[in-house]
Design goal:
This protein is α+β, with helices and mostly antiparallel strands. Helix content is 18%, strand content 13%. It has 7 helices and 9 strands, in the order H-H-E-E-H-E-E-H-H-H-H-E-E-E-E-E. The longest helix has 14 residues. It binds calcium ion. Calcium ion binds next to loops.
Length: 305
């Protein structure tokens, strides 16, 4: 066999045993699927870290809590994008918050009663609009509790109060939203997203079905960017920070303000407040040793990331 013959023989062998289209044993199961997405350039990943944790294995989220991943968000009110701001809501700035877990709902009467039964919490007032001791209000938020009682309960649960920055990030996410669910008013399109107090007359307050506070988690459409419910409305919520007017512009990494003469911060607005008071950046404060029927709380916990 000459050289040409050998080449022809090799070509035949290649075609017969899978070296070309005629003998292809390709994986047909891939047919019809979209081509695999090209990997992101490393440079882009390094310069845009907010999604970095998405690529890591999921972390275990405790029952009844949501996970808010570490990272920066815009905290505070900027009149150019948020509308009218109170002086105390300024300045708007980027704040880094370490990862944490937050209770999905406000702490309920049932949960707080368990803490009392265990001897770890002192009983709150039970009169008038206060929920403790009222039949059929086990799934209502505990209210009429002081800041200290809120701290007691969170410690009992192996948790702590969220910082003001944590609370705002859980409500606001990284897109600067006005309400936890987005930009719409709480009843836009006839969907109710919160228990709030629009208007002066009872029939206006009752449009969301509740004159005062209502059971936690009643408005699934009001969920925030990480899944927390009722951050806007129902009861306002004690957070860990002491109140002072405005923010320290340079305190931008896990900020937390200790006790102040003014009191402790409460967030989220309540069943008795207008929609503008439910905006994610609105602040209020109260004397920590007082209790209020429109104030409750939820707890937080450090997360691995
Ligand atoms: Ca609330």
């Amino acid at each position: 066999m000459g050289r040409t013959g050998i080449l022809l023989l090799l070509a035949f062998v290649a075609l017969a045993f899978g070296g070309g289209p005629a003998g292809c044993s390709c994986d047909r199961s891939r047919e019809g699927r979209a081509p695999a997405r090209a990997p992101e350039p490393l440079r882009e990943r390094l310069e845009n870290p907010p999604d970095e944790d998405v690529r890591q294995p999921p972390i275990e989220v405790p029952d009844g809590m949501v996970h808010v991943p570490r990272g920066a968000f815009r905290m505070g009110c900027d009149e150019e994008v948020d509308g009218a701001c109170a002086a105390t809501e300024r300045p708007s700035r980027q704040v880094w918050v370490s990862g944490f877990f937050l209770d999905r709902t406000e702490v309920t009467v049932a949960a707080f009663t368990a803490c009392i039964a265990a001897g770890s919490c002192s009983p709150p007032v039970s009169a008038g609009e206060c929920n403790y001791g009222e039949a059929d209000r086990g799934q209502f938020p505990i209210n009429c509790v002081t800041w200290d009682q809120a701290v007691q309960h969170c410690a009992f649960a192996g948790k702590r109060l969220p910082t003001e920055a944590e609370w705002e990030k859980a409500a606001r996410g990284t897109d600067g939203r006005t309400f936890p669910w987005g930009a719409d008013l709480p009843d836009a399109g006839g969907t109710f997203r919160a228990n709030w107090g629009e208007g002066l007359a009872r029939h206006l307050w009752m449009r969301d079905q509740w004159e005062y506070d209502g059971p936690v988690g009643f408005f699934p459409e009001g969920a925030g960017p990480y899944g927390a419910l009722d951050q806007a409305g129902n009861v306002s919520e004690w957070v860990a920070d002491g109140y002072r007017e405005g923010y320290a512009p340079d305190d931008t990494r896990d900020p937390e303000v200790g006790p102040t003469a003014e009191g402790r911060v409460v967030r989220g607005g309540s069943f008795r407040e207008y929609a503008r008071r439910l905006r994610t950046f609105v602040r209020d404060w109260h004397e920590p040793t007082f209790w209020y029927s429109h104030v409750g709380f939820r707890c937080a916990k450090d997360a691995p990331r």
